Amino acid sequence: MKVLIVGSGGREHAIATSVAKSSRVDKIYCAPGNAGIGQIAECVPIGAMEFDKLVAFAKENEIDLTIIGMDDPLVGGVVDAFEAEGLRVFGPNKAAAILEGSKAFSKDLMKKYNIPTAAYENFDDPEKALEYLKTAKMPIVLKADGLALGKGVLICNTLEEAEAGVKEIMMDKKFGSAGNHMVIEEFMTGREVSVLSFVDGKTIKIMSSAQDHKRAKDGDQGLNTGGMGTFSPSPFYTKEVDEFCKKYVFQATVDAMAAEGRTFKGIIFFGLMLTEDGPKVLEYNARFGDPEAQVVLPRMKNDVIDVMEACIDGTLDQIDLQFEDNAAVCVVLASDGYPVSYEKGFEIKGLENFEHKDGYYCFHAGSKLNEEGRIVTNGGRVLGVTAKGATLKEARANAYAATEWIDFANKYMRHDIGKAIDEA
């Protein structure tokens, strides 16, 4: 098979690494890819939103399967563009990707189908939102309705903060058109857990749980980021939680989307909050998480191509999804100053230390080849250093040890990824 992966981050590198393990695949392309992906795939200079060019490339090169890694093209309808040309593509179509594309839609869906989530109100008028806040209980959560690179959520502790947040999202358009509409919801307390799943429109198969660290600084301080590290499985995702979610959340979501005429095929990422009142849905994503993919995919025993094709063909019920009985931890090496401002173009040294080391991975998120052919930094999140271990503590120790193998100017990381493991 020839496979095309669309995207350029650590998630796409993790997907490419899994695809490369498949005995069914001869050739991998990635558009646009990055320097790390370029070591296992042929990178093609086509942007993720250039649908016509992507479709033309897939036809010209007789691509057997295209895998969409990113949220923007999914919400924009890239799957529809491929399907219109009779091409096989993995990911939800535009009608289904609205599950991530509009927080207002997903909240209304949960309310309609009794899927547990935080109490909320939707707004398209900033004045009405400000009026509502005067009667609301603090702290409170503000969410830009559309896609905002995982950063469009503000947790406000006071009325003044919340009012400033409404202005930022809806009036100043900090997140662009994503802030034309807004969700205001109750603040929930508890542990967050991420659960990824494969879906074929009717059947859902749950992957191993994970837990992300969104804040830039140690102790969950600093600004929200795309994710500074993650671990899998989460010790807080117990058998009881799993049974509850299977009954009231996972299948219920798939069935709700089908009932709405928005049959979902691809990945549903469930962001859960384990509250005192039981698990509740924080958010949905319509693709692999980043960096969750970096700890979940390396532990998957199945051939990823078999599973993705079953999602497309509606035969997922025939797949026995299996994961290794171990753990993985990913520590993101970022550019100092991320997520606000940072310099790029520094040479990355030590990548060769990961070659032929079983259970260790260095997933590239923001890297490129410079004019001299050297791999340099090219983003806020640069690398996802990932390691497996028999236990979470061992995986964590291995991952942090491996961060020492890499060096680049202005390298920055959190030192407490997976610290919650010690409390479990």
TrEMBL record:
SMART domains: GARS_A, GARS_C. Gene3D superfamilies: 3.40.50.20, ATP-grasp fold, A domain, ATP-grasp fold, B domain, Phosphoribosylglycinamide synthetase, C-terminal domain. The keyword Cell membrane does not apply. It catalyses: 5-phospho-beta-D-ribosylamine + glycine + ATP = N(1)-(5-phospho-beta-D-ribosyl)glycinamide + ADP + phosphate + H(+). GO terms for biological process: 'de novo' IMP biosynthetic process; purine nucleobase biosynthetic process. Signal peptide: none annotated. Pathway: Purine metabolism; IMP biosynthesis via de novo pathway; N(1)-(5-phospho-D-ribosyl)glycinamide from 5-phospho-alpha-D-ribose 1-diphosphate: step 2/2. Keywords: ATP-binding, Ligase, Manganese, Metal-binding, Nucleotide-binding, Purine biosynthesis. One of its GO terms (molecular function) is phosphoribosylamine-glycine ligase activity. Belongs to the GARS family. This is Phosphoribosylamine--glycine ligase. The lineage of its organism: Bacteria, Bacillati, Bacillota, Clostridia, Eubacteriales.
